[in-house]
Specification:
Distance between the termini: 51 Å
Radius of gyration: 18 Å
Number of strands: 0
Shape: globular
Largest sheet: none
Helix content: 55-70%
């Protein structure tokens, strides 16, 4: 449990959210930076070939989100152990966020990160774009925790779950459209 239900917690719930979010952002930036470093390996591939690969992955992700293409996403089926949070609450909260923020320590349900990662790997973007992508991934994961904390409504999770199937679909359409717009294969 990330947020303590009682007043006896050593760090207030807002502080826990800030530490968790900092970890998420750091983890997201680290993963994006690793992809940026590895992107040099794709340099020998012609630009048109890289663009086609990016668009093919985006299309596959889009089709998966809408249930047309039954693809299983790669995942690490192990969850982050609870003792990470219990041993040292403040540092553990940052570590928990960091591990979630990297995207490699837990299950990611949306296809969008699996579309963005190859796009970063194959497109050789500027470092600022990479940092923005990492921050976006971390911030996206932080939104759920923040809204859950701030809603103060016991039924929030039930209502959110009813809307959840649409969020990855909308995100996948947005990412696919963005990749299509910036593709060097597009005229203009």
């Amino acid at each position: 449990m990330l947020f303590s239900p009682g007043w006896r917690a050593s760090t207030g719930q807002g502080g826990v959210l800030a530490l968790f979010t900092a970890g998420l952002l750091l983890g997201g930036v680290l993963s994006a930076f690793a992809l940026w470093l590895l992107s040099g390996l794709a340099e020998p591939i012609p630009e048109d070939g890289r663009a086609l690969a990016i668009l093919a992955v985006a299309l596959a992700g889009l089709l998966r989100e809408f249930g047309v293409l039954p693809l299983r996403l790669p995942q690490n089926a192990r969850q982050i152990p609870i003792d990470v949070l219990q041993a040292r609450p403040r540092l553990g909260t940052v570590r928990f966020g960091f591990e979630l923020g990297t995207g490699v320590r837990t299950y990611v349900t949306s296809s969008v990160p699996y579309v963005v990662a190859p796009a970063l790997l194959l497109s050789h973007p500027d470092l600022a774009v990479v940092v923005a992508a990492g921050l976006g991934f971390g911030a996206g994961r932080a939104v759920t925790a923040a809204v859950s904390l701030w809603s103060r409504d016991a039924d929030w999770n039930v209502r959110a779950a009813s809307r959840m199937p649409w969020l990855p679909r909308v995100a996948a359409v947005g990412v696919a459209a963005a990749l299509l717009l910036v593709s060097p294969l597009m005229p203009g």
